[in-house]
Amino acid sequence: MENSNNHYCLSITPSSLELLSIIGFITLILIRVLYIIHRSSQPRSASSQQKPLSTLIVLGSGGHTAEMINLLNVLQKNSFTPRYYIAAATDNMSLQKAQVLENSWLNEGGVEEVGSAKFMQIYRSREVGQSYITSVGTTLIALAHALWLMIKIRPHVILCNGPGTCIPLCAIAFIFKILGIRWSYIFYVESIARVRRLSLSALLLYKLRMADQLFVQWPQLKSKYHRAHYVGRLM
Amino acid sequence: MAEADEDLKSRRTVFVTVGTTCFDSLVRAVDTQEVKEELFKKGYTHLLIQMGRGSYIPAKSTGENGSLEVDCFTFSSSIADYLRSASLVISHAGSGSIFETLRLQKPLIVVVNEDLMDNHQSELAEELAERKHLFCARPQTLYQTVADMDLGSLIPYQPGDAAPVAKLLNSFLGFPDD
């Protein structure tokens, strides 16, 4: 049977159009991600108003909270306010310790000087020893909860120092940066207990370049991870 | 009254702490005859063991017949007082215990728990031992460490400072420095 059209037409079929759109969209996102990563290493412009920045503080069991409290004590409280403390739902002590800390500040100076604080809990992605299969489900729940909290808080600054609870929060903050929802400065201080190897949380943030600044306390880590900032021991 | 004071003065306590962990191998190692005898030989009078979640319970002893007085408990809301009144601290490798003890300038033996998976804790203990701020051991080497230790060789740990981080954050965010 003869075809009326002997020549071969390059027809833009609907599926090719969709494919091109998808590729174009992905390319735009990649460019946006690279731009965000580039801008992350840039300090906040000095010409901005020196308004206080809402701060999300991620607490973790034991040493993590102690180290975070040690750091918070030297920060100018009225620059980092309001403060939102988040700890894992199964962590009983950390929020208590943070409340004691905030109360002690209020005793020294009024709300004007010291700023305000809120305390919340977040579902954990995975408990120690939990099977990896069920961890998938709990991680998804934790992500959804993290998203909900981040939408409510939309902090300008995130301070974290190790617990796995910070990863979903930082990941969502990074996505918010890409989507232009909120620019959160992510500061990660690696624990003093990490001398030669980074924790998993730090490694993720470092490799994926999600933290604006990553601080390490021992010189061995600085030589291994050049983009980290060596700040000596904090404790 | 004078006698009680003298008692306090001559009292030299070894405080063992495992924090909130379960570290039976440390408690067992401390509770061995050889370690207790060695501590007694070195002039310690009391052994106080904070056992945490461990299941091995050391036998208490009143310390007659020239031996250590041994006592134990599971948890305390704060071990600061026990650390303060100790002459020697033997601790698990948790960073909180370690720095709390170093801040009080107490001689410290850190025992690393090899049963822990992914033992990053040993990195901190080993680094501080290299810098001569404490002695580092494993449960099996505790006796040797106690026998060989020279407390005079320890260098006091100078407390760190979080202010440099605050400065960096302030300059990055464009906040004025105090």
Automatic annotation (TrEMBL), chain A:
Localization terms from the record: Endoplasmic reticulum membrane
Segments passing through the bilayer: 20-37, 132-151, 171-189
Pfam families for this protein: Alg14 (PF08660)
Entry keyword Membrane: yes
InterPro entries assigned to the protein according to its UniProt record, in alphabetical order: Oligosacch_biosynth_Alg14 (IPR013969)
Broad class of where this protein is predominantly found: endoplasmic reticulum
The keyword Transmembrane appears for this protein: yes
Gene3D superfamilies assigned to the protein according to its UniProt record, in alphabetical order: Glycogen Phosphorylase B
Membrane topology: Single-pass membrane protein
Keywords: Endoplasmic reticulum, Membrane, Transmembrane, Transmembrane helix
Protein family: Belongs to the ALG14 family.
Protein name: UDP-N-acetylglucosamine transferase subunit ALG14
Automatic annotation (TrEMBL), chain B:
Alphabetical UniProt keywords: Transferase
Biological processes per GO annotation: dolichol-linked oligosaccharide biosynthetic process
Glycosyl transferase family 28 C-terminal domain location: 13-162
Entries under InterPro entries matching the protein: Glyco_trans_28_C (IPR007235), UDP-GlcNAc_transferase (IPR052474)
Domain of life: Eukaryota
GO molecular function: hexosyltransferase activity
Short name of any one Pfam family annotated for the protein: Glyco_tran_28_C
GO cellular component: UDP-N-acetylglucosamine transferase complex
Designated name of the protein: UDP-N-acetylglucosamine transferase subunit ALG13 homolog
Species of origin: Coffea arabica
Chain's gene name: LOC113732796
